[in-house]
Amino acid sequence: MGIELQNITKKFTGYTALDNISLNVASGELVALLGPSGCGKTTLLRIIAGLELPDSGKIILEQKDTTNLPPRKKNVGFVFQHYALFRRLTVFENVAFGLKVLPMRERPSRSAIQERVEHLLKLVQMDWAIKRYPSQLSGGQRQRVALARALAVNPKVLLLDEPFSALDAKVRQELRRWLRKLHDEIHVTSIFVTHDQEEALELADRIVVINKGRIEQQGTPQEVYDHPVNAFVYNFLGNVNVFHGRIKNGKVTLGTHHVDAPDELKHTEERASQAFVRPHEIGISRIRSAETDLAGTIQEVRIMGGQIGLNLACEGFEHPIDAEIQRELYLNLQLAKGEKVFVSLNRVRVFTSDYEI
Ligand code: ADP
Ligand code: MG
After folding, report:
1. Which residue from 21, 200, 259, 277 could staple onto 8, CB 3.0 to 4.6 Å apart?
2. pLDDT tens for residues 35-91?
3. By alpha-carbon position, which residue is closest to atom 21 of ligand 1?
4. SS3 content of the chain, % helix, strand, coil (to 5)
5. Contact indicator for 324, 313 with CB cutoff of 8 Å
6. Pseudo-torsion of CA 44, 236, 250, 319, nearest 10°?
7. What is the spatial distance between Cα 276 and Cα 319, in angstroms, rounded to a whole number?
8. Domain boundaries 239-351, corresponding CATH code
């Protein structure tokens, strides 16, 4: 096992930032910690790195209990959200830094350092910039150098704390694909923190969803996306329509409509429910194809590239419903604001938890 966290708890003046977190990351795995701002992600990384001590619990890295070791003894590489390169040092000196400050007996020779830095800069495709200063690089380039610097000391574990979040959307997407490929080459056990579900879904072998200092769910991107265990995870993993209603006698209310409750909730006593439908799981047609179709009117059209967003006022529903359809369908049906359509909710997920949106 690369990383084993056992029952980590951390309080700040009475506030519980981490509440009994246990998590295993296999050697060579890339795990994304995904959760909203303030849920404890950075605190957990800082504890793994030894920059913060837990109140209780253990941190085992590559079979070794490192709970009370200082950061420099942990052999952990860290890349932060904000470019933490030394401004007055060149790219070469930045990457070499961690090697040059090693105690004499562990420090590689000058030529070995030179070789290693060149190798790492090639790996992150920044070898052309070896003599430059950070101010001469773009944000994305600086983060690649920061990654090379973190890898310089051959860390057992690599921790990345929202490393791309200060970059614009296109660069962020490029870098996440690049990092995924790089990880496939170097296989260093990694934890990648993000609040961006798309980033987590695209990048990680496994996703751990955190909320208020607790793990809500963990699994492969597909498992977590297709089978969210509760309302929080469902809502956090993408855009969603929420219908507050009641569950009674095996039926769930959706506006003034009723649909069959899912099997596990068929026999539950009457209580509040939340039904969720993702915008891309809504069907739009010009003719009614099933009795359950809703009559709706398009209130707004949003062009989102290949997808088109529709805001629909539907009979029996207090709030408008958001749908996303393929551009082709949109053109074929000749849809426009004010047009009447039929709406089918193709995949409704119902939860009875009292999570508030
Ligand atoms: P995230 O990285 O998920 O946004 P953090 O781990 O930074 O969340 O913070 C979790 C919670 O702990 C937040 O409510 C934050 O205000 C609090 N917190 C973090 N560090 C400290 C600290 N040193 N002192 C007091 N509270 C802190
Ligand atoms: Mg943070």
Report:
1. 21
2. 999 999 999 999 999 999 999 999 999 999 999 999 888 889 999 887 689 999 999
3. 12
4. 30, 35, 35
5. no
6. 150
7. 13
8. 2.40.50.100
Instruction: State which ligand 1 atom lies nearest to the alpha carbon of 43.
Output: 6
3-235 in CATH: which number?
3.40.50.300
Give the C-alpha distances (Å, rounded to integers) separating 350 from 79, 246, 317, 319.
39, 10, 17, 18
What does the pLDDT read at residue 158?
95
Q: Tens digits of per-residue pLDDT, 233-279?
A: 999 998 899 998 889 888 888 888 888 888 888 888 888 898 999 99
Residue 46 Cα: closest atom of ligand 1 = 6
Closest ligand 1 atom to residue 193 Cα is 2
Inter-CA distances, 78 with 3, 130, 158, 197, 202, Å:
15, 21, 6, 21, 21
**83-107 pLDDT, tens digit each:** 689 999 999 999 999 899 888 898 9
Kindly tell me if the per-residue pLDDT of 145 is higher than 70.
yes
pTM of this prediction exceeds 0.85: yes
**C-beta 43 within 6 A of ligand 1:** yes
Which residue ranges make up each domain of the chain?
Answer: 3-235, 239-351
DSSP 60-120: EETTEE-TT--GGGT-EEEE-SS----TTS-HHHHHHHHHHTS-TTTPPPHHHHHHHHHHH
